Amino acid sequence: MNYVIGLTGGIASGKSTASDYIRSKGYPVLDADTYAKKATAKGGPAYQGIIDHFGADLLQDDGEIDRRKLGAIVFNDDGERKVLNQLVHPEVRRMMDADKDRLAEEGHVFLDIPLLFENGLDRQCDITLTVYVDQETQIERLMERNGFSHSEALSRINSQMPLSEKRDRSDEVLDNSGSKNELYAQIEDFLANIEK
């Protein structure tokens, strides 16, 4: 049986590290963030709606949307984040579904979706897999990676479903509190189990 596996986590949880490792093992990984970038790029299906709602002040010199400016708006205003999600998510889902259906005929396929549970996309998956870290580790990693202050990091983290809730709702959990090699070993165990 070929599985559709929903991979999720929170910001700075290590989900991208897990996703990259799974991809390196030859599994197709469809990344919702990549589809979102395509949808919001100049000429993309969500581009004009974003400009119409949030204003041309978001545009860089090359006509692309300044993602940092947009992020500063939506991570500080739940209403504006909902508007952005309503513009982008249907396009992401449409593009991802087309690729998922094609690839699932050939073998297991992973869907790397940060908002897997929030958007009910877990219902399209045979297995859900969450990359988990405790909140203090998440804050430290986000501060180091993005240069955020503690309050900025906490604001970004609090704008998402708590990782503990994702962990509790998930079929399988990868604990990323340790080293990368420890994470990789857990992934190897998971991959071995789905290949049985």
Strand order of the largest sheet: 2-3-1-4-5
Question: Biggest sheet: strands, sense, closure?
Answer: 5 strands, parallel
User: What oligomeric assembly is this protein in?
Assistant: single chain
Please bin the fraction of helical residues. Answer: 40-55%
Separation of the first and last Cα atoms: 10 Å
Secondary structure tally: strands: 5
Q: What is the count of DSSP helices, taking H or I runs of 4+ residues?
A: 9
Q: What proportion strand? A: 5-15%
SSE pattern: EHEHHHHEEHHHEH
Supply the helix-strand structural class. Answer: alpha/beta
Write up this protein:
The structure is a single chain. With 196 residues, this protein is an alpha/beta fold. 54% of the residues lie in helices and 12% in strands. It contains nine helices and five strands. The chain has a five-stranded parallel beta sheet, with helices on both faces. Helix 1 (15-24) crosses helix 9 (180-194), helix 2 crosses helix 5 (78-104) and helix 6 (135-146) packs across helix 7. The longest helix is centred in the middle third of the chain and has 27 residues, at 78-104. It is globular, with a radius of gyration of 17 Å. The protein starts with a strand and ends with a helix. The mean pLDDT is 94.
Explain briefly what this protein structure is.
It contains nine helices and five strands. It has helices at residues 15-24, 32-40, 47-54, 67-74, 78-104, 135-146, 150-158, 163-169, 180-194; strands at residues 4-9, 29-31, 109-112, 127-132, 172-175.
